[in-house]
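Pinned message: reference record for Cytochrome c oxidase subunit 3
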Amino acid sequence: MYHNAHVVSNSIYPFFMGLCLTGVFLSLVVFFKFGVVIFLLVNIFFLLFNFFVWGKDVFMECASGYHNFVVDRGLKMGFIIFVGTEVMFFFSIFWFFFDKLYVDGNFWWVVVGKYLDWSGLPLLGTIVLLVSGMTSTWSHSVVIKGKRPVLGLVMTLFLGVLFLFVQGYEYTHLFFNVSDGWAGSIFYFSTGFHGLHVVLGVMLLFLCLLRFLGFFYSSLNFYFFEGSVIYWHFVDVVWLFLFLSVYI
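Predicted structure (tokens):
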């Protein structure tokens, strides 16, 4: 029977992605419990490898003309649902934080708050992330004009990686850890998961850069790049809320 949807062939990548994600979370438990980092690094490597080879297949489907209007609409709807779940995820984090802060704000100040200096590394990271949002918007405007935004994407990727280094450097100089009650847990959980979302955003934009370098984009069909830029702005907004809530 004829239909407009694209029926994909059997793929092992979703199964391996589930295994890799499970391995990452289990290795995080091992890392926090025993301080062993090798399992975490191995699982992250396989996760990234699976992400890129799976993305390669999706790009080849698009380049082969399988992504028609119906498929594009389904992908856009899936992206909207994905961002919606991310919004609810971070909303729950902020809900927990402000609830505990209202009940026991002194504990937060004694354990975490007095050690945080918003005008130092957090402010630097905020500026870096906001500038990266500007460069990603510039890249989007370049694509609309029918050109390849290689320079803008490279700048955005550099700033995103720089933000991760700033956050990692801050972690190594803090005087509390994840086991210091609810205050330490919520700080590392919120900023750490935001960092993971920055990593995901960097990966998405890097895939976009590879596609532009391979001439797999056109000014009429760039929903993946557009979605990646929107996701990057979402990461920016979440960090602004974290910066204003946690650090200030």
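Pinned by admin. Summary line: The chain is about 80% helix and 0% strand.
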